[in-house]
Amino acid sequence: MDYLWAFLVGGAICVVGQLLIDIFKLTPAHVTTSFVVLGALLDAFGIYDNLIKFAGAGATVPITSFGHNLLHGAMASAEDHGFIGIAMGIFELTSAGISSAILFGFLVALIFKPKG
Amino acid sequence: MKLQGRQTWKFGSEVYLNSTGTAVGPMESEGPLGALFDVRYNDLHCNEKNWELAERRLMEDSIASCLSKAKLTNDDINFFLAGDLLNQVVTANYVARGNEIPFLGIFGACSTSMESLAVGAALVDGGFAQRVVAAVSSHNATAERQFRYPTEYGGQKPDTATFTVTGAGAALISNEPSPIRITSATIGRVQDLGIKDPFDMGSAMAPAAADTIMTHLKETGMAAEDYDLIVTGDLSGVGAPIVKMLLKEKGIDVSNNHRDCGLMVYRPDQEVFAGGSGCGCSAVVTYGHLVKELMSGSLKRILVIATGALLNPTMIQQKESIPTIAHAVALEGIKGGSN
Amino acid sequence: MSNKEQQQEYAKKIKPLQPKPPYFINCLKAYLVGGLICVIGEALMKFYMTYFNFNEETAGNPTAATLILIAALLTGIGVYDKIGQFGGAGSAVPVTGFANAVTSAALEHKSEGIVLGIATNLFKLAGSVIVFGAVAAYIFGMIRYAFKTLM
């Protein structure tokens, strides 16, 4: 069942992105940046956590969860350190994603050659 | 007077296309014209270290095979006119560094093929040169990475997109008789009807092609039927019907003798979206295929209109539309021709 | 230079000759590819929760890292751009699309050297996601925290 919901919700988020590309002629870069902001916004209202409970990876794998994690880390750190905590915690939860993207991106670029 | 009307050059009888050379990448080798190209690579890197070197190799190969067919060397050439799609026409510059022929760099995006041929013919006709080599190149990966995205980026392209031809073509122009004469050329005006989509260059370029064709016919006094073939450079599956429609509106019917190089260079089942583009597109089709038809006599008189989208990614991001241009050159086979 | 009216007239005239994107097929493909990537993510999450000491909250981290590794490798061997052409947003929206944007930019600029090529261009395409994400999170965080302290 978890798999089904992950598929349905994750796929649906992608369809929204596809419609933005096809109908509103946005570039993929515009879509992903909009989705990150949207993810943060949904988290600001506490909605995104419910979506994750419901859909699991269907909500954590799309880039919207990046925005959600950014805000989540900031808020958790704000609990302890106040306003300064927002700056301190913003990359707390996304660290794994960003650092692995840097590392793997760099290593792959070192090893492989573009195929065209 | 060799000028006819405002923008058409009528060359004297002493301007000939003596020899041509072509070099292409893997997709073009597999295309319907594949066997006609002189040098064929089955590796997109053309055995070089990076994409830019690969494109340079293609241009060098096309020139080498053009000159070897004419049994000439670099020292026999007065001027080298060349261009490509990359910033500062780097491919042409570096090829010129190697061959040491006096050099004029030319840029007209994908129209550079006919622009260089027309200017070369004018130099020969005016007595300013005895032999000129005109060459252009384009490479799918160098174009992708400069104008669009990195080659491995997973962005989806729409069906209106074109596929930059990996290929180079070179032509030798001189006053020494050969089976093919360059009879006239029409220099185009920059047209812009407000198309902003870099993935729909066919729609952007069609008005430029239509304008140049109309002007050419008017200023030379020819009819569209006088040409066995009117070939546009890279309007592709989207732009080709548009140019036919635009010409029809002006009472010119090219439905029987119009073809587009972008649709000739690949098979329909090759995954190239709307068709081929790039200055290599019109160059390899003209210099590899059409020239042979002229020599054999199966075509007598053709008009090649190379179309260029003067696209710049920065300008597009600044919300500018795409200016476009088209230059036409008329070629005539002497065998069975009118003179 | 053409005027606005000519441009509009031209746009209208050529409309029937321009192919429309196949909306339904594109959405279907995006759904399939995007959904499938999420299913792989779900399987990875379950794997990390069962065999390693991760809970539902933390399992997202190794899952994202693994997906990023897979996408980076697929980019390196020249497969991800083909998936992208098929899947559209389905492969651009998941975190794998982020990894592809990072890796493809780095790989493409390899010929300009490791420092000025690979490292400098690593975030050429994906940087906008981090910039907008961080700025949005900062602003929303400030607002939410302000509300919380005031209430």
TrEMBL record, chain A:
Keyword Cytoplasm: no
Entries under InterPro entries matching the protein: Spore_V_AE, SpoVA
Transmembrane segments: 6-24, 31-48, 83-112
This protein's name: Stage V sporulation protein AEB
Keywords for this protein: Membrane, Transmembrane, Transmembrane helix
Membrane recorded as keyword: yes
Matching NCBIfam families: spore_V_AE
Organism, scientific name: Fictibacillus enclensis
Highest rank taxon of the organism: Bacteria
TrEMBL record, chain B:
InterPro entries recorded: SpoVAD, SpoVAD_sf, Thiolase-like
Pfam family, one: SpoVAD
Alphabetized GO MF terms: acyltransferase activity
Entries under SUPFAM superfamilies matching the protein: Thiolase-like
Protein name: Stage V sporulation protein AD
Organism: Fictibacillus solisalsi
Automatic annotation (TrEMBL), chain C:
Classification via InterPro entries: Spore_V_AC, SpoVA
A Pfam family per the record: SpoVAC_SpoVAEB
Residues spanning the membrane: 21-44, 64-80, 127-147
Keyword entries, A-Z: Membrane, Transmembrane, Transmembrane helix
Residues forming coiled coils: none
Tagged with keyword Metal-binding: no
UniProt name for this protein: Stage V sporulation protein AC
Organism per entry: Fictibacillus solisalsi
